[in-house]
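Mods, move this if it's the wrong board.
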Amino acid sequence: MEHFIFALQVQFRGLFQMILVLGIGGSFPYGFHISVINYPSVHIRKFINETWIGRHGSPLHPETIMLLWSFIVSVYGIGGFLGSLCCGYLTTKYRKKKCQMCTNLIMLVAALFMAFSKTAKSFEMILVGRFLYGIGTGFSLNIHPQYVGEISPKKLRGFTNSTVAVFLTLGKLTGQVIGLREILGSEALWPWLLASSGLSALVQLVTLPFFPDSPSYLLIQKGNEEACRKAIRKLWGEGDHQAEIDDIMKEKVTMTSTKTLRVLEVIKERSLRWQLYVLMTVMTTLQLCGINAIYFYSFEVFHTAKFEEYLIPYVSLGVGLCECLSSILCSTLIDRFGRKVLLWGGYTLMCSVLALLTMTLSLQHQFFWMHYFSVILIFLFVVFYGIGPSGATISIMVEIFSQSFRPSAFLIVGCINWMGLFVLGMIFPLIVDNLGPFCFLIFLGILALSAIFIYLYLPETKGKSIMEIKAEFNKLNFGKKETSVTENSFPKEQLFCTKL
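Not the wrong board. Structure tokens:
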């Protein structure tokens, strides 16, 4: 077994190196910015007030300071939404590799705004930097899953797709670590904390030019079979990869008689109806599964469990580490158990944990020992989330759409993700205030419905080509008598456009 793993590492060394490079500048910054912004919040609010006093001679009202702080936090989501809207069209026209490198430049400019905001005594620079970070992560979070899915062979596709979640959770964990007051979370160093994300952009900007475009892009869209074979040899090593090339050729033949659809056309297209149902279900569930509520309640639970105040950030860091490790475990399990099992199984286990957690949180003031169970359940929930939905969702999103429809599909994903992030941020505090620990029942219901839907309707995609997966969905889209009906019914036209 060890010899097999070593041989795999040697043969696919180029692929693993590219996965690392794509991850560093892909989903890693998204996870980083989700977690890191909480640590310097007190220092930034103080800086806003001091800047205002220096300009106008009088302090700002506390509510105004809080409003400006809220805008700094939320403008990231607005930037991400705009980045997602533009990404589909630009990646189709200028290719993913070039767009990702331009994204790195945007992130570096944002880092400079953050680094010098305190020196320039301008909180507006923080706003601009945060907005640019949002645009950059809006692009990279769209490009990374598509790119990494297209460079992998069929037998490793589940692993490579799940690395998107691994780097996202690694970004969260890194933000938690360097945000500690002992590292960059102090009052003197917070601008460098916010600027540190530029380092990952710089690394990717320098290293990505040494790697090829995806083999499917080179063969399908550029029509360059020799460049495709060269990219495959560089990424997958020497060997017989003809079966993989044949699968790409089949997809190319399909695409030559297929019009690439705009977003609204994708939504209306009958042959993509169940793919969209699955996409909407897994993305909405990922947003509303309760993971944000778990992180929110973890501080209260740890405090009630009599942890010392200074220890709570480190215990929370343990939760982040737990999510990261379980995502890594998911990447090793996904090609063994399949995407479908990890999704519906993960949803079911998370459901069970939320039911128990609702009970323990409700009773923790009546029984002194109950909060210890709550702590265990929080860690269990994060483990089940990391092993199941966190990694498998990305893999499903990449695999159920062919290359011609993937940019439009990911534009839809981006809109759901960023709008969900914004809406959840607005209404979640109200839900918690009104329902308390019973807010988990809402997430429990969503998880239960999603588990049933995925179990009944999602075809297993493990080890199947894009054309085989499409044939499975055609049984749902057209019924068994019409499985031969495919997207070939479109007129012969190649129009790569993902505008609304």
